[in-house]
Give the backbone structure.
Amino acid sequence: MITDNPVFCALDTTELGRALALARDLDGHVGGIKLGMEFFNAHGPSGYHALAETGLPIFLDLKLHDIPNTVAGGIRAVLPLRPAIVNVHAAGGAAMMRAAADAAAEAGDARPLVIAVTMLTSLDESDLADTGVTGTPADHVRRLAGLAARSGLDGVVCSAHEIETLRRDLGPDFKLIVPGIRPEGAALADQKRVMTPARALELGADILVIGRPITGADSPRAAADSITRTLSLAA
Ligand code: C5P
């Protein structure tokens, strides 16, 4: 179940104790948490359950990419965990995405949103060319997001700078999940093209994935509260 708070905090750690302490601190102060392969490969379903006990919705960011049957099996295997959101790589193609959506639907009312990763932000135009894809990253993202929508997925992960175009292309119900968010004045770390939470929401983001500005703060809870305050001011 996804709440009104659009902030999902990325818990990028392999340390179970730290993840648990963060989740307990943030419970009620963020809309959910994002767990990636780092955490899940280290702690598996038991680590997941420990965090899920907080009651926070979980975005299980495993970025599945394989043949359709295997991806469907991978999704099916995590359905008992009742994640709020799961994801696959759009580059896996239409049949793979349809198989992922169909597998998720088997959870009925507990169906997670199935989201596609379009193009990793660590890649640039020359990396794309090396993989045989010509054209700009913006065109590639747009093409893959359209394919994800036509394949029955609920949305995509995109950068804040792609929100306007994708919202226009894909309509109001398609979920746009946006990392690379930095509150005014926060350290960029390795993020290059960032946007403030309020601006990203204003442009049409549905979920803001925010990691270090919250997890690296002296008080993660206070940092999360100060972010959500800027959102209610903007609303
Ligand atoms: O700490 P920070 O706010 O930069 O964390 C952002 C989170 O979003 C990380 O978990 C990162 O892996 C993820 N992410 C991203 N850019 C993407 C896709 C995912 O930063 N294009």
